[in-house]
Structure formats: structure tokens, C-alpha cells
Amino acid sequence: IVNLQSYPLKSLSNHLSKILSIKSILAIKLKISGGANGIILLGKERVYDWDNSEEQLLKSLSESVAIAISQVHLQQQARTQARYQKVIEEISLAIRQNTDIDRLLELALTKTAEALQVDRGSILMLKYKQPHLNDRKLIEKATAQISCYWSKTPNLEASNCLQRKSVADRKYFFEVSESALTQAAWQKAP
User: Distance between CA atoms of 190 and 4, rounded to whole angstroms?
Assistant: First the structure.
């Protein structure tokens, strides 16, 4: 618990006082999951000397707030895990039903992108002369072909998987070495 009027960093106290239009601040860090990742600030419009009972009240309140935030975080994780599990089940069902490869790629990309709540997704097929999958530098010499594309907001060219013929006709090929985004994705992939 910090009474910012007696805190060594007067500039922080002055800055908060100006922003919040208050003269006295009592603050405590929220410790959630072992780390300090939040703060509760109490303020008064006049100069005030916070007493020990107020500091203890703030301390007990902070523990309750930290528990509540942890509970919300766990609920969000459970919802996310359920969303991911549903995607796995849908794709597994499509595989069991012998769905053709283009439909399977479209379904996998669409459902994965929606589960991860991203705006766009692509499936790239890489072509390279001498495969050395363990050497991440050699992959930069590969040619990438966009075989499937998904967008949250449909556009003229790519609302579904691109047909292989149309991909070749429209030249949806590029050198991986020319795409910093693709290189970064490859380097960070598990």
C-alpha cells in the first residue's frame, strides 16, 4: 500500500493528481496469478492523511478484487477452450465423412480463424527444391502458393478457398524471402 503523498516518486503523485483532480491518493497493487498486474487507486479532492484502518480496508478489498478478476479470467479460458474443442470436433467429423480436400481446407481455415477471432487467414503450400524442414533458413528459398484464403469481411476475390486453377491463373505465388510476414510466421511456428 502506498500513500503517494509520502511516496519518493513525487512526479507520479503530481501527474495523477493533475489527471484525476485530486490532492491525496492511496494505492495498492493487485497481485493476480503471482504477478502485480493492476492497481486500485483511492483519491480525495483535499489533502488527507490516510490512516492504518483505511489502508487495511484497501488491502482486504484488493484481495477480493484479485480473486474476482482471476475468476473472470478462468471463465474466459474455459469458454476459449470450449470454442477450440468445437473446432477440433467439426474438423474431425469432416475428415471421417471423407470430405474432399478443398472443402476440408476451407472448413479448417474458416473454423480456426473464427475460433481464434482473427480477421483473415490463409493456407500456404510451400514448394522448394531440397526439403530440409529442420533448417528454418532454407525454407526462405521456398515459393509459397496461397491455396486457401478466408476473410472476416468477404471481398471480391477470396471469400472461399481459391480453386487451384484460378490460383495458378492469377499467380497467387510468391517467394517466401519476399514476405517478411510469412518468414516471421514460419520462424515462430511450433
Answer: 45
**How much of the chain exceeds pLDDT 90, in percent?**
25
pTM metric for this prediction: 0.59
**Integer Cα distance of 26 and 6 in angstroms:** 10
Lowest mean pLDDT among 12-16, 33-37, 157-161: 157-161
Comparing C-alpha atoms, which of 93, 153, 76 is closest to residue 121?
153
Tell me the three-class secondary structure of the chain, residue by residue: CEECCCCCCHHHHHHHHHHHCCCEEEEEEEEECCEEEEEEEEEECCCCCCCHHHHHHHHHHHHHHHHHHHHHHHHHHHHHHHHHHHHHHHHHHHHHCCCCHHHHHHHHHHHHHHHHCCCEEEEEEEECCCCCCCCCCHHHHCEEEEEEEEECCCCCCCCCCCCHHHHHHHCCEEEHHHCHHHHHHHHHCC
pLDDT higher than 50, residue 163: no
Closest Cα to residue 46, out of 16, 22, 14? 22
